[in-house]
Amino acid sequence: MAAGVNYIKQLNATYEKFIEDNRLNPTHISLYMALFQLWNAAHFMRSFHVIRGEVMLLSKIGSKTTYHRCIKELDYWGYLQYNPSHNPFKGSMICMTIFGTTDRQVMNPRRTNIGTSNEPAVVSINKPIQTLENYKNMGKHNFIENSKFKKLRTNKTKQPVGQFLDHLKISTDKNYNEPL
Q1: Which of 25, 33, 85, 101 is most exposed by smallest CB count within 10 Å?
Q2: What is the pLDDT of residues 39-56, one digit of tens each?
Q3: Close Cβ partners of 37 (under 8 Å, ≥ 6 residues apart)
Q4: What is the DSSP letter of 79?
């Protein structure tokens, strides 16, 4: 196992490199992430073998030409070392570059410090947990009961929606005192 490789630190450091590197396109990033997952599966060994077809499936790359171009560019740009095998029974050798090796906690430098803290958040036990589903349903029932949607839901005949609903208030008889 490669000494000092931490999944989160390596991934965060790599993303920082991606942000700064304008040469990369989504195919390079997809290929790198597929190789990163295979590296993780190999327990971050210093080098590991890959099979082109497997990597192409994982990275969603459909062309051998694109695969070879991107992996050679990642090699040239210092993201990894690529040693092609030329043997169909033995995969190519990959040696990933280690970026995130610090012992201290990695903080995102772009993160603002407005009303935030590096301390863990403490939430009162009495506070209800706000889930996405709760948020979506918040006030939904009152809105439906008091709106034109209730009439449309109970009406079985098909009628053009534009005649009965003017959500954007685009009609010519606008009441400018009415709230948006």
Answers
A1: 25
A2: 999 999 999 999 999 999
A3: 58
A4: S
